Target: Transcription factor WhiB
Amino acid sequence: MSVLPSFLDLGTTTPCAGQHAVFFPPVVAKEGDEERRAREARALALCRRCPVAADCLAWAVASDCGSGVWGGSTEEQRAAARPRSRRARTA
Model:
């Protein structure tokens, strides 16, 4: 994964702090669709309260961060928003 953006440094207090399991799919266990939707809904609710959500989303898009919820967007939402030529290269 890319280096974390500066707005998420250790001095920043954001709703996502300490909530890694809510924002990213499990590495070991398989996550079902219902579990994924519930996890993403919890993450998106935290993003709605976040003062740096716009910066977070901009960073995720600029760095092509494919995994997890960033800036109030899911992996699928960011993939759908990519220009068609970039989607074809990453597929």
